Amino acid sequence: MIKHDYHHGNLKEEFITIAMDFIAKEDVEKLTLKVLSDATGTSRSAIYKHFKNKDALIETIIERGFDKFDVETTPNLKDNSKALVDKFYLTGKLYVEFARKNPNLYRLLFGKKYAHIREEILSIKDEDCSGFAALQKTVEDGQKQGVLKKEESYKQAIVIWATMHGISSLIIDGFMDVENVYEDMYDTLFETLLTGLMANKVKIISTVPVLKKLLQPKN
Amino acid sequence: MIKHDYHHGNLKEEFITIAMDFIAKEDVEKLTLKVLSDATGTSRSAIYKHFKNKDALIETIIERGFDKFDVETTPNLKDNSKALVDKFYLTGKLYVEFARKNPNLYRLLFGKKYAHIREEILSIKDEDCSGFAALQKTVEDGQKQGVLKKEESYKQAIVIWATMHGISSLIIDGFMDVENVYEDMYDTLFETLLTGLMANKVKIISTVPVLKKLLQPKN
DNA sequence: TTTCTTATGTTAACATTGTTCACTTTAAAC
DNA sequence: GTTTAAAGTGAACAATGTTAACATAAGAAA
After folding, report:
1. What tens digit of pLDDT does each residue of B163-203 get?
2. Maximum distance among all alpha carbons in chain B?
3. What angle do CA B176, A72, A137 make, to 5 degrees?
4. Which of A38, B57, B99, B211 is a good FRET partner for B13, with 20 to 30 A between their CA atoms?
């Protein structure tokens, strides 16, 4: 007679941890209930005592994922000790680096497959707390300071996001072999973006080397 | 005794057609062998007489998909009757519109899930024929004409692609409700991109209204 | 302490998935 | 006309998510 460990303790949290660790290494598609039951030493149906179904676990993963994403990226935007363009530069870099370091999680958060779950989560969350809201607010600050062109802030924010999302996706989905030239690529991308967004006649201050060079007055 | 239609005729091509039609409406993930067998009135294993496995069918779909994509987008880049910036503007627009009209196919072509199949296909195809090569060449033309900044053409091409891929992905993956303001959004995006890429001192000609306005000399 | 209830686990079973295998039928080559 | 290979069939497999009936353990109630 095999002795079973009933009442594992904190099995629910353990499922979540294992799932997140798994996604850190492999694609969400490969995360099966068997993976979870094997890792916890439970049966394949044990999870249903803690989650309604697999999607409910995924939902939790997405929530945690967005928390992690927010913690690693948005604080920069709100750090007013930094020059405005530097905030954009650094936050953008952190964005791309998050995607590079957590490709499977990034795809889970920003891909199509679980869009229905994401939308449910984001509709509940306070919209003003989202990263995009912080981005848009920073764009508005930039316009007030005369650094950015006067334009609908929503549209400018989308342009910035699309740029960062684009380069991140190309990298993690296998279209670029940029392990080495990644920083160089990012600088070119950001220079182009910032140049396109900037207003003309204002002196802009930055402490980021590549931006200093870009922003120094020409002829 | 049921009479079976042995030797269907062109079942292989029919599988491909049905699969492409399916993807035009629903996500690749929902394309099962049962869908194909039901639609053709065959058994679920019939497909194995024409394709090694499901992935082999997907491979064919991806090949056809890239053909379709190339036909609908790249010819513009090679049309030298158009002004250079207009080529970029129009091709970019066609790119985003392709994604909007064929979201499931776009995701299949440019997503991660079947990246291994895509890479196999693209490694066989003549690289110089790819859309990216055409883009890079146009970038080089732009530099020669003094329209674009002198910069590594590869990097500039990546910047353009990332921008278009980013906005396309955001739209089709459910982050923007731009059914109405889509053209407006694209114009803003393109203006920003072009402004960032342009060289300074050259008069640039365009017949696209929004670009005319952008390019007319200021101050 | 004993009993009851509920949370939390188990096993067995199901439909659906892609896939393989032995078999059957048809078309065409000889 | 016979043979052969191409192109279909159905049964079976393992893996998937899921459900249902059952088992156990922990803690509240007696």
Report:
1. 999 999 999 999 987 777 889 999 999 999 999 999 986 78
2. 86
3. 50
4. B99
| One-letter identity of residue B64 | R
Residue A129 carries which DSSP code?
G
Range B136-150 burial, b when 16+ CB lie within 10 A, else e: bebbebbbeeebbbe
Structural domains in chain B, CATH included, are 1-51 (1.10.10), 64-215 (1.10.357.10)
**How many Å apart are A32 CA and D23 C1'?**
26
Q: Among B23-32, B103-112, B148-157, B208-217, name the one with the lowest average pLDDT.
A: B208-217
pTM summary value? 0.95
Q: Would you say the C-beta of A1 is within 7 Å of strand C? A: no
* B 92-111 → A contacts, CB under 8 A: 103, 107, 110-111
Q: What is the pLDDT of residues B35-67, one digit of tens each?
A: 999 999 999 999 999 999 999 999 999 999 999
The answer to whether residues B109 and B172 touch, using CB atoms and an 8 Å cutoff, is no
Specify whether the CB–CB gap between A170 and A107 falls below 8 A. no
